[in-house]
Write a structure and sequence with these properties.
Two copies of one chain form a homodimer.
Chain A: H1 9-14, H2 27-42, E1 47-50, E2 55-65, E3 68-78, E4 86-90, E5 93-102, E6 106-108, H3 109-112, H4 115-126, E7 130-137, E8 142-147, E9 157-159, H5 160-166, E10 168-170, H6 180-193
Parallel strand pairs in A: 5-7
Antiparallel strand pairs in A: 1-4, 2-3, 4-5, 6-9, 7-8, 8-10
Amino acid sequence: MINYPNKKKDEEFISTKPSFKTNSKGMIFEEEINVANSFYIREDIAYIYKKPTPIKILNTKAYTEGFQKKILINKAVFEKKSTTDYNGIYKGKYIDFEAKETKYKSFNIKSNLHVHQKEHLKNVRRHGGIAFLIVKFLFCNRVFIIDIADLELENSLIKFEYFLDKGIEVYQKRTLHLNYIDAVDQLLLKENNE
Amino acid sequence: MINYPNKKKDEEFISTKPSFKTNSKGMIFEEEINVANSFYIREDIAYIYKKPTPIKILNTKAYTEGFQKKILINKAVFEKKSTTDYNGIYKGKYIDFEAKETKYKSFNIKSNLHVHQKEHLKNVRRHGGIAFLIVKFLFCNRVFIIDIADLELENSLIKFEYFLDKGIEVYQKRTLHLNYIDAVDQLLLKENNE
């Protein structure tokens, strides 16, 4: 049994494959994205992976299982500084994004995005990559991607209406729960028309 | 004190920031690449990161340090299936590579590259990304990058001469120990001329 502080009770039973994070917010949403990514890899559409959580190992122990030498990590901590959740390749381009979900009718940049994550996404965008946030609003169960260039990073609170205006909605398909790559296509079209 | 099975004695004193891997081969070489990547980020040339080693957490314990809630991982194992060592963005393109060093005068593909890593690099290349191996030959202290498209993945043993012929040598600069991005530029030039 693993204890997640601040973990919501209902998530504990729904999520079958927990992706161990210090903050468990967005865990089911992440699973949805992982499922989509597996589908894209299988269909040779895009190669996008969840970055492993950076962990600092403090102690290990060697042991043998059958004839195999193995290593058990018996002391480690989560490293604070990670970049973003996902990156990969789509249509030759570098793609990088952060996935978040919120129960509010606005998105709090300050509490959802670290300074180094903002910088990272801005750098990717400036270097010609695809950089965005994918945000799930739980109150209406709608998902939007929003280009980092369209995100007023100085504003702390971004209203839902702003996502309706500037974001691209992710619609659900039969084959796939969260087909976000269609929204990425629209984002690329928008970029090319600018 | 962390015990690395099979760890070479001299590495223990040279490497200041060990990157915890089950196989410690190539640890110093990886450090050289990390230093180069930090330089590229600082100079706004490329954004390339070492992927964290995927770890499967089996047990955690919550504790408090001062007023801060923290999590200690007290049971975890290395996950076998990782993709490659590094990825990121360079000149708008997705870049992905694996770093290896060898003491031999040939490079053993089979023992150095997992099947899924080969597949991953081939997929990246096919989708228009930059995908290569960066190999350090310890016997002569020379480093080469080799396009995944130029690597005969079916052959198990690739001779050093093949790297001299098809690879691009990484020369060392004063500002930087391992300036591999110059070699990547040559690789891109070669690609465009094909």
